[in-house]
Amino acid sequence: MARAYKKVYEYVPITKRANQKMMPKVKIIDMREEMKRRHPILSRELECKIIEKLNKKEQILLLLNRRGHSTTISCSSCGFTYRCPNCDITLTYHKSSNQLRCHYCGYTIYKEEVCPECKEDGLSYYGLGTEKLENYLEEVFPTAKVIRMDRDSTQNKGAYEKIITEFGEGKYDILLGTQMISKGLDFGNVSLVGILNADNSLNVPDYKSNERTFDLLCQACGRAGRKNTMGEVIVQTFYPDHEILKFVQSQDYNKFFQYEMHIRKTLKYPPFYYLCQITILSKDYHVASNEANKMKAFLEEKIDASSIILGPTTANMFLVNKVYHFEILIKYRFDEKLMPALKELDEIVTSSKDFWVEIDFR
């Protein structure tokens, strides 16, 4: 969009749907209030709307961008928490297979009936995933036909197409899933879209989190009311006053663009600055840390003084499959010294067996 404003790209806006149908009405629900009323999963309004649509024989889409049953299992007696031995993350519980899995390295174990540490019956389940939501919907709406679409339910060949076809034929009332149900689907009988935990992606430590959240939620909203019915969207969030959610509610990309450009300019992010991320990886923590510090010193000496070097710091996912990750971020505009410096750096580290480097232009 920034390049379109500068006439580098031709700007061709699409302001209406292809069939001239109205965009759905979007309502924001404050889950802080719902939690006080003991409605932690579905707000009262979303639950009532689902019942209303089921009675009208209309279909519902529910977006929850987190698969599995529970994100954490801990023992209330001794405090033990199931964690991946290879990564710096808790294991996600999948009830259908009774397995705990790491979604980064693939490590998998079966869940025990009692705490493996203290042998007490004190295991508690925290967090909400698509599998847990599916079980909840089947309990609350016993007559509704529910189908789940996420990476776990579409592993078999043809599973994705089968779910799409059968839901389109009206064999199911509720389709719930991760972001794979948010884009490109055209169901004429879907009149309600519910978005649960809408602020999950807003909390990701990435400068693109606002943009990705706006994109995901707007696309999900667009699945409602595409043909025969008026669409409604209910967005559940713990941050109802967040500016991004207000832009989603109004479906106003231009206001979102102006808001986000101000942030990007203030914090020196694209499109005002280019980014180069250097990731230093090693199976030895001290090697990774020391080499990261050496690389920063090397870059400070080699590249233009106008460029900004941040770090080194630990990556968001610090330990993945027993490999430690440190990051250096370079913000630059016009730096002719950068590419020669990176090539020299790459040649220096190529011969090393103790660590390796990934260079990513963002």
Kindly list the characteristics that best describe this protein.
single chain, 362 residues, alpha/beta, Rossmann fold, Alpha-Beta Plaits, 2 domains, six-stranded parallel β-sheet, four-stranded antiparallel β-sheet, 10 helices, 15 strands, globular
State the CATH topology of the largest domain: Rossmann fold
CATH classification class of the largest domain: Alpha Beta
Low-confidence stretches: none
What class would the helix/strand composition place it in? alpha/beta
Describe this structure in words.
There is one protein chain. This protein is an alpha/beta fold. It folds into 2 domains: 21-68 and 128-265, Rossmann fold (3-Layer(aba) Sandwich), CATH 3.40.50; 274-361, Alpha-Beta Plaits (2-Layer Sandwich). Helix content is 30%, strand content 24%. The protein contains 10 helices and 15 strands. The protein has helices at 2-5, 31-36, 44-55, 130-140, 159-168, 209-221, 243-250, 253-267, 285-302, 338-350, and strands at 25-30, 59-63, 72-75, 92-94, 99-101, 108-110, 123-126, 146-149, 174-177, 190-195, 232-237, 274-282, 308-320, 323-332, 355-361. The strands form 4 sheets. The chain has a 6-stranded parallel β-sheet with strand order 1-11-10-2-9-8, sandwiched between helices. A 4-stranded antiparallel β-sheet has the order 13-14-12-15, with helices on one face. The protein has a 3-stranded antiparallel β-sheet with strand order 4-5-6, with no helix packed on it. Helix 6 packs parallel to helix 7 (243-250) and helix 9 packs antiparallel against helix 10 (338-350).
